[in-house]
Description:
By secondary structure, this protein is of the alpha+beta class. The protein has one domain (47-333). It has eight helices and 15 strands. The strands form four sheets. Strands 5-4-13-12-7-8 form a six-stranded mixed beta sheet. A five-stranded mixed beta sheet has the order 9-3-6-14-15. It has a two-stranded antiparallel sheet with strand order 1-2. β4 and β5 form a beta hairpin. The longest helix has 52 residues, at 21-72. It is globular and about 85 Å long. It starts with a helix and ends in a 12-residue tail after the last helix.
Amino acid sequence: MTCSFRVxxxxxxxxxxxxxxxxxLVVIAIIGxxxxxxxxxxxxxxEAARRMSCSNNLKQxxxxxxxxxxxxxxxxPSTISLGGSANQPWSAHAFxxxxxxxxxxSALINYGLGYHDGTNKSMFPPSGVAxxxxxxxxxxSDPNDRMREDSGVAVHYPLTYAMSVGQYLIYNPVTRxxxxxxxxxxxxxxxxxxxxxxxxxxxxxxxxxxxxRFHDFVSMPNVPPASPASVSxxxxxxxxxAANGHTEWVCGRAIHTxxxxxxxxxxxxxxxxxxxxxxxxxxxxxxxRNQVDPTYGVITARSYHTGVVNAVSxxxxxxxxxxxxxxxxxxxxxxxxxxxxxxxx
Length: 345
């Protein structure tokens, strides 16, 4: 009797030693739910870390600007559009490189020649300093951290932090008027000229690398567009590229290293080209192209952070600016001496 009971018990245990299909499916479903709950939290944590790193980059750039001003008693111009290197005008980003622990780079640059001049290219072959990746100039949330190439040859490295250069007018070579922002072509501002206050004036904001753009549209209207929707109809022309804007950190032209306050951050400026809808920037005659045509631009601050762009003020403080900021307030923050009252934002 005892032996029979043991045989029966062993058979019973053997028949129930594994999971049933239903039990396995339940376990898989539970794991899927847990992963689904955990993944957004992990992604949010990663984005928070990237956003903090982005803010730190801007903080370092702000500090570099203060060190530059301390050494030179003025801030760098957004570019120098006069002289023999007008077709390859250096950017403010290039001028402050020595103050970003980049003295080993700047020591090999002849700023009196263009960045693609043979002398400068020979120091960093094959395409010169333009192809060097400067980590502090790139937001880790931007997915386009890659070289810009021409026919398979590396020619430029992009950036995602741009100088504030005006609301719409960037530079008039005839009158020498700039856009009234923190930076301008041939404009070496001192801190004393920021009568709106350094904390109330944005120096740099985020932009997106490889932004679709039009440039050299000489007949671009001399008044800013009333709305993003009006840009496509009246403000587009000249040279088109589906992924060329903000791809040259060495270049002082605003289409690459500047932004304007025509529209609030992350405003979508849509344009259909060859059946594809793009979010674009536009600029008229590029600075230094000649000494007659003015430069106007709709170059919007953009980022891959949800609902905001990070920006550094001229006092060195970094803040996140909401997409919902009032347009007049945004423009007031991007003037250095216009006397506006900056409201809450």
